[in-house]
Structure of MFS transporter:
Amino acid sequence: MMFRTQSFLQKNPVLRNKEYLTFIFIRFGLSFALTMQFTIVAYWIYHITGGSKLALGFIGLAEVVPVICFSLFSGYLVDLKEKRNLLSAVVSCYVVIGLGLFYLTTSYAASHLPKSWVIGLIYFFIFLGGILRTFLGPTAFSLIGLILPRQQYANGVSWSSMAWQIGTVSGPLTGGTLIAASGIETGMAVVLITEMIMLALVFRIAKKPVMKTTREPVLQSIGEGVKFILKTPELLGAQLLDMFSVLFGGAVALLPAVQAEFFPQTEAFFSGARAFGFLRAAPGIGALLSLMMIAFFPLRTHPGKKLFIAVAGFGISIIVFGLSRNFYLSFFILILSGIFDAVSVVIRSTILQLVTPDDMRGRIASVNTMFISSSNELGDFESGVMANWLGTSRAIVVGGCLTLGVVITTFFYNPKLKNFQFRGQE
């Protein structure tokens, strides 16, 4: 047993770093709280608006506007600021948002505020969360690069992604269960408490040196980050591939409609809010399984080709999910989509860590946030509009087909990404 433990730690040296362990626990806690919050808000909005699919799309729109507006500027600030204190400020603001959403779930708010105000305030808090997201991603990305030595980046990204995915599994499952058992108020209370605990843990991480000390004009500094990505084909290709696959494959945004149309409230165990919670958690379960395999069998060879296979598998999974009317098949297919998505995330994140200079991490990560976060939220909006126009099932299938089109196009037009290798970059 001792030999197996030592062998495991030799393969995963980052687990000997106590500060890194604190960091990934914070990653887990924030993922747990924020995905539970998203699950509750999506279910809440869908039902408070009388089953409006367009209202689900507006959740994404409310978050994508600040992401597009603030992402580049946030990266400029992240590069100039101390990362631990910046993370504590971001988490503190998440606590304030959690408190506001919790208030809106209470009977006091329901009796004193008109429904239109409640809906408007929910979207307002989502908008504020979008601003925070532009700081959270670059700050966490920069922090992991300061906690770990360069040769441990790939291993660190895998475990960090696994911690995040454990949260994305347990958050929706807990949220769906709490909605079914106690209502949305209890769920939001758990979100708030979790965020407060994570805030306390942030201060167990030591302050880090600021790698960039010279202040350049804002636009010039931001432009350097954009130029670096544009002149690095493997990085640009990975970003575009992920952005468009997420943009077109946003089936998760329509899960409240999928649950209501295909798995309504019945006597069956997997129905109603519980079915929604399990379906929302399924991609995270798949991602977790995938990341556990990657931890034991790292992606060392042909990462570029594996990235294309993973995104193609994700697109096919979305198509099958759109055609399914069986809960167990839908659940399994969403698990598969999570498996493929996790592989692409690990490869893309490792490429990002390896090719980014230390003094540009905040700006490059902010561009990454704009690519990925905007595509997530724009994908939610696009899915809501498409579902309102074509119907839920057709919208999901069309999105999966478009994802496959993106994979084929990128495969033939970006040979550097296709042939990218981790060796030689470390």
Q: What stands out?
A: Residues 115-147 form the longest helix (33 residues). The radius of gyration is 21 Å. The domain at 12-204+216-418 is CATH 1.20.1250.20 (Growth Hormone; Chain: A;).
